[in-house]
Write a structure and sequence with these properties.
By secondary structure, the chain is an alpha/beta fold. It has 13 helices and 17 strands. It has 2 domains: about 5-165, no CATH class; about 185-430, pyruvate-formate lyase- activating enzyme (Alpha-Beta Horseshoe), CATH 3.80.30. Strands 1-2-3-4-5-6-7-8 form an 8-stranded antiparallel beta sheet, with helices on one face. Helix 5 runs antiparallel to helix 6 (about 230-245). About 40% of the residues are buried. Bound molecules: iron/sulfur cluster. Iron/sulfur cluster binds near residues 209, 219 and 258.
């Protein structure tokens, strides 16, 4: 356990009470640093209720964030469900420890309840033990509260009452409030957000994207629009109220929507400073700080060097993810991405320059891994091999199939062949929403 003094000092010491088959633990300290490890980790500060059937964990507002069944039928003792702030349940699976970390850079595979582009994973939400636990946790909680409450002091009973009030309807309404604050749901997070288990505060500094590519399933239909500062300021104040005390468990920002880099230097730097200050992210129980955003070929090439230098000097590690898709013109046309291949190539080389010169900024790139025009895969292999002077540990490449909802072993083998030829860290992109 990593109880960092700054955060730990403002919370009471961990407290535990057992009764019969049930136990309650309050102010538990999870790990205080995001790490890639092959065993389950709980991050930040949380409360836990354990019964004979399940383990349930809650954030500081008493909202459930974790579930694990304890019965024989639970798929694996080291697999669990996580509830996101958008009120999705994700199932974290080990993937049988079979190549998951090589494929996605993480030891656990997040399975989503909605169709996504993942080539890995099974159908955990179809397993009765998983679907039943998602449906029955409110009853399990109510039974545990009835069992535990008589012996508890007032402060613990208050926390239990808060947990009970956050029933599935209330949680759904809370997620809807979040989407309203942002002006819409975050339909896709940058793949780099995996470094913080996708735990981010979303602040939208603009809307939509520049290209509206034909192939893209996550784009906003709204025309591209820069948000004025007063809208961003109001959004940040409302996010502070929405997160309440639970920003202590978050150290990272996502600047949305699909091309925050196009919002310009002044907005990007001001939004990072303001949001971190108002939300108190520097005092998080999670060490460090991160900013994630999407860019595009045009916003990357238009951004002045001074912006990247300023981001490098900030107190955060900054990850910018750019969709390049292909360096083959016929394939770009097929995808309906309105760009010239030469410009995509120019962006790729600019990315290498930034990654080679600024330690605090990492620009990552996405490519389509599918049978497009005949020139696509050969040009991609050439780019990721000969196109990079030497092997680098920074500047991840994320590959993604066009199809959604169809895991495929043969596509995974194609991915491994590309990964072997690439001089950059190369992973599968798992599209996850918030
Ligand atoms: S791929 Fe990116 S730029 Fe193209 S439509 Fe989707 S969000 Fe917009």
């Amino acid at each position: 356990m990593d109880a960092r003094p700054a955060a730990g000092s403002v919370f009471p010491a961990e407290w535990r009470h057992d009764h019969g088959d049930c136990a309650i633990r309050l102010y538990c300290r999870g790990t205080g640093r995001y790490a890639k490890v092959s065993y389950p980790q709980q991050y930040g500060i949380y409360s836990e209720i354990e019964t004979a059937e399940a383990v349930m964990r809650f954030n500081l507002k008493g909202e459930i964030v974790y579930l694990r069944g304890k019965g024989q039928d639970w798929p694996h003792p080291q697999e669990w469900l996580k509830r996101t702030i958008g009120n999705d349940w994700l199932y974290y699976s080990t993937g049988g420890y079979n190549g998951v970390v090589e494929a996605i850079g993480e030891y656990y595979l997040p399975n989503t309840p909605y169709p996504t582009n993942s080539l890995l994973g099974g159908r955990p939400f179809e397993l009765p033990a998983v679907s039943q636990l998602i449906a029955s946790w409110p009853d399990l909680l109510a039974e545990a509260v009835a069992e535990l409450s008589p012996g508890l002091p007032g402060h613990a009973r208050e926390i239990l009452a808060r947990m009970l009030s956050n029933d599935p309807q209330a949680l759904q309404a809370r997620a809807a409030e979040l989407f309203a604050i942002n002006g819409g749901r975050v339909t896709v997070l940058p793949p780099d957000a995996r470094h913080v288990d996708y735990d981010v505060v979303p602040v939208h500094v603009n809307e939509g994207c520049l290209y509206k590519c034909r192939f893209c399933r996550v784009k906003s239909e709204r025309p591209y629009r820069r948000r004025p500062w007063d809208e961003v300021e109001i959004q940040i104040q409302r996010l502070r109220d929405w997160f309440g005390g639970d920003t202590v468990n978050v150290n990272s920002l996502f600047l949305g929507e699909h091309d925050a880099l196009a919002a310009g230097s002044e907005m990007i730097l001001a939004a990072i400073d303001r949001a971190r200050a108002v939300l108190g992210l520097a005092d998080s129980a999670m060490a460090g700080g991160n900013v994630f955003l999407f860019g595009s070929v045009d916003s990357l090439l238009a951004a002045p060097a001074s912006l990247f230098e300023a981001l490098d000097r900030s107190s955060c590690q900054v990850y910018i993810n750019v969709g390049l898709e292909s360096v083959d013109q016929e394939s770009l046309d097929q995808l309906g991405k309105p760009l010239a291949a030469a410009r995509v190539m120019q962006a790729f080389h600019r990315i290498q320059e930034i990654n080679g010169s600024l330690a605090g900024v990492e620009v990552t790139a996405n490519f389509i891994m599918d049978d497009l025009a005949p020139g696509h895969l050969p040009s991609l292999v050439k780019l990721l091999g000969e196109g990079v002077a030497k092997t680098r540990s920074k500047g991840c490449i994320y590959l993604s199939p066009l199809a959604v909802g169809s895991p495929s072993r043969s596509k995974v083998m194609d991915f491994y062949r590309l990964k072997q030829l690439s001089r950059l860290p190369t992973f599968l992109y798992i599209i996850q929403r918030l």
